Amino acid sequence: MIKKIKQNKFFTLAIILMLILIGFSFYSHYSEYYSYVPEYYKIKKNCYEGKNKDYENCKFFPTTEKLEKYIENNDPKKVQIKEDAITLTCTIVENTMFNCLQYLSPLLLAIAVLGNIHSEFNSGMFENYMLRMDYKKYLRKTYKIALMGALITPVSLILIFVLSSIFSGFNFDLSQVDTNLSVYREAKYSNFFLYGSIICLIQFFISLLYANISLYCCKKHKNTLVAIIMSYIVFLAVDIFIYIILYIFIINKLMGFKNLTDYFTITGFWYFNDSNCIIALIIAFILQLISFFILYYSYSKKDKVIELYEKQVS
Q1: Both 14 and 45 in a single domain?
Q2: pTM of the model
Q3: Band of the pLDDT at 282, cuts 50, 70, 90?
Q4: 42 and 190: one domain?
């Protein structure tokens, strides 16, 4: 087990970073909700227990009845967040630090994928592998790592939902949901399991796009760190091309299709404000398919890959 972890240390690192981010997102959410606790105990000590009746916040409780009601209703030991599992899931994904993955998930994927694969390339070990096995078989073996990496973000979303269900006491009662919440959309809430499944599938395809970019950059430089940074720069270039060139200039200006911004901003494919996320699913699938064919073509000729490696180490 330990040997397996060491062999896949970068993949393990990516998973650990994801778990830390999820944990911190839940922590920050609950910390904000219970931020009143220090002040609660000061009010209880000074105003209710009579330690210092002149404490400034005692003025907010002009009667004993109001003070007693506040103490009873806000006791941290009794108070529980009344969010349902769906609202808590959406809040963590959309409104906490977790949403930094909109821009950092390509880097996370590059670390997971390139960290594991690049050492074979820069050390020349891949040549030894290809002497013992068919080249296409070696490529399939390598691509399995990309597929595994692409599962990190969808699984993280499922984990958030599972934790939200546990923390909310498996509360799926939507009758008390505040419809003024920024995360609330009727279509999303009424079909949440379908919506969530589509989002996970979208993230899988988008993650495959990031993984394909990383694999493409793998043979471009013998230094792992440089290859990781290069893959992130390529992602930024792809993101800019899709939004500015493809959408703004071609689809919007030339073809006249308006109000499709959300579907051509691939960094925002974590959640949608309307129910029609099928368009995003199609776009995500097409993008990963195009990137796969480009990747396949770039690795299709074994001799050229070896020649490129030899140029870098010479």
Answers
A1: no
A2: 0.85
A3: very high
A4: no
